[in-house]
Predict the structure.
Amino acid sequence: MKIFALIPKNFNLSKKLTTLMVAVFMGGIIFSGVVYYNILHRNAENEVNTQANLLISTVDAIRKYNADRVTPLLKEQSKEKMLIEALPSVAAAKVFDIFTNAAYKYGEYRYRNAMINPTNINDKATENEIKIIEKLSQQYKPKGTNIAEGYLTINGENNRYFYTARPIIIEKSQTSCLSCHTSLETSPKSLQALYQKGVYSGNNGFGWELDKVIGTKIIYVPADKIDKIAKQNFLIILGTFMAIFAISILLVNLWLKQHIVRPLNQITQVAEAVSLGDMDASFENKSKDEIGRLADAFRRVKTTLEIAIKRPRS
């Protein structure tokens, strides 16, 4: 094979074997490294995706608690004045901000309620987010997982982000939401007052429909975070492989010296001594492998030579 021809012929057996093992290892690590890194990168995405979905579920629980328990209690008090902080979506977003500021592990996570027609213009979906909303709308199933994920660049930023998104949809059990989002004329007076004061403007936040995807709850994570997780895991695996390889080379070389190189050196030394006339030179080798058979064959040759030398010449 051509690979064997690349090994210098003046190398001893130990060096030749080590060189061959290093070459095979390097080829294997390059090939498997590409495969393993892609697998580890996908695993990192799944890990972040699981965390993001857990956070979205937590936000949904907060939103539902506000909608079912808090908002009805404040309904009478807020007829004349809209309590923005009590709105389920606002409460959920604020709690998420507090959580990410307090928990170092999730400090890089961003949460957004991206809407096609939001009440607050800050929640207006970007071009990329509109595509995500359209994707969620196309694949929406009433009792399905309904999750979209992928990579995108946020407007005005150079960094890429990995996102996990779920649809925002007004279900039949949430018809009370439409009282604020059907039209300005039919909305509560406290909400109308906010439009009159200029807090909200235009027709923003109206025209929402039942059982239709109107936005997305989306969490952004810097792509660098996923790359970092994948690289850390890859380096751990690579380090483990290299440690195993180093130990393997050490053990193979020790075995090679003990069972191959040393017996061959002994046979060579005896052969050289015999060739110089020292017929008393000898060695012991009790192994039954190929080296042992070679030693036995050499002893027979030596014995035959001794007999030939001692035989009287006619």
The chain has two domains: 3-29+231-310, 37-223. Residues 37-223 form one domain. The mean pLDDT is 80.
